[in-house]
Design goal:
The chain has helices spanning 2-13, 38-50, 57-73, 81-92, 99-106, 110-115, 126-134, 141-148, 159-172, 182-191, 195-206, 213-225, 229-239, 246-263, 266-280, 290-305, 308-322, 330-342, 346-375; strands spanning 25-27, 33-35. It is mainly α.
Length: 379
């Protein structure tokens, strides 16, 4: 925490330094647009959570603007805790003119539209906000009024609901770092690349939890995110006892196979996939649902990761199962082409690459048609 406090002190010294926290377009490891400065901006937001003052309003507003820009320009980044925190801090000042900035965050992407609370826009007060927007000449006046008011012209949030929301937000963002859920620190540590802190906080969280299905699910996810795949696989094996239907069993074994593969235990991954396939026999129409396609994908991923005879055997099984599952998505076809190439099966490598290219062309055509339909003027 001391490092983030120092960063906030620095930012308070001069607005000229705020540019270090601006949205800056970059690409993540999967090729998606992201924000190069998201972690640096997050540190200042965390410090402000525990120490925001009246004189910080301009800094908070600027940070919220950058979050809006980030979520708009990099929509696959979704709605993050940092965006919600920026919105909470801004709402806490209760400045009615900030309704437009909350609106920019709200409409930034699909996730913000669904998940950024409407109460943010009412932060200055229900009546005050509605009156301010009604009297405004802002270009988005009508759109915002349509969001604030229902079909009868009544505010969609009452004063009582707004007060309850403020109380809930304060519980979500406590003023004392000691009041945070350890999992919050796990996520924050991962964001800034401090895996040691993330693991210590995860262990601290686990110390107070029963090892039930919900807890083990979180543990698997967090351990895998930290690269501790063998430990995540062990936790996933513990979860198997909670699978009480063929669907749940198949899903659990597929997840286990992926973790074993990433841990490097390819034979254990193959064994888990065999059990997954056996469980799928109890799922009516399994080859037509997403779980079936995910099973086939994991087979191809394992074939691409394994070596020698095991890789060839797994690829043969994957190829056999793939022929029974229609509508394989591009990600599965790509994994199939890569696995075939690795084992030296040029015929199947070419066949799956052609299928992958055809699926890509189909998607591109569908997207172009959708855009054309959207852009066609209505009569």
């Amino acid at each position: 925490m001391e490092a983030v406090r120092r960063e906030l002190v620095r930012m308070r010294e001069s607005p000229a330094l705020w540019r270090e926290l601006r949205y800056e377009r970059a690409r993540d490891g999967d090729g998606y647009v992201c924000d190069r400065n998201v972690a640096r901006r997050a540190k200042v937001l965390w410090a402000l959570q525990y120490d925001h003052r009246p004189e910080d309003v301009a800094l908070v507003r600027w940070l919220a603007e950058q979050e809006a820009c980030c979520r708009r320009e990099a929509p696959f980044q979704g709605l993050s805790e940092e965006t919600r925190l920026a919105g909470f801090l801004l709402a806490d000042y209760r400045q009615v003119a900030d309704v437009w900035l909350h609106w920019e965050i709200k409409r930034a992407n699909f996730d913000t539209w669904a998940g950024y609370d409407l109460e943010h826009l009412f932060a200055a007060g229900v009546g005050e906000t509605v009156a301010f927007v009604r009297e405004s000449g802002h270009a988005d006046r009508d759109a915002v009024l349509g969001l604030l008011l229902d079909e009868q012209g009544r505010a969609r949030v009452s004063a009582e609901e707004l007060a309850q929301w403020r109380q809930s937000q304060r519980s979500s963002f406590p003023v004392d770092p000691a009041g945070e859920d350890p999992l919050t620190w796990v996520e924050r540590a991962k964001l800034v690349g401090d895996r040691g802190l993330a693991r210590r906080e995860l262990d601290r969280w686990m110390g107070g939890q029963a090892r039930d299905d919900a807890t083990l699910s979180v543990l698997c996810h967090q351990l895998a995110a930290l690269g501790a795949y063998a430990e995540a696989a062990q936790a996933q094996r513990e979860r198997l006892v909670y699978a009480d239907s063929p669907w749940d069993s198949a899903s659990a074994y597929r997840s286990l196979a992926g973790l074993e593969r990433q841990a490097g235990d390819h034979r254990a991954a193959r064994d888990a996939l065999r059990l997954c396939r056996r469980a799928l026999d109890g799922v009516p129409g399994w080859s037509m649902v997403g779980l079936g396609r995910m099973y086939v994908e994991e087979l191809f991923l394992l074939a691409g990761a394994a070596e020698g005879a095991l890789a060839e055997a797994v690829f043969a099984e994957a190829d056999h199962q793939a022929r029974e599952v229609p509508g394989l998505p591009m990600v599965v076809l790509r994994a199939a082409a890569e696995a075939a190439g690795k084992i030296g099966d040029e015929t199947n490598a070419e066949r799956y690459q052609q299928l992958c290219d055809a699926e890509r062309a189909r998607i591109d055509t569908a997207v172009a048609q959708a855009r054309g339909h959207r852009d066609t003027p209505r009569s």
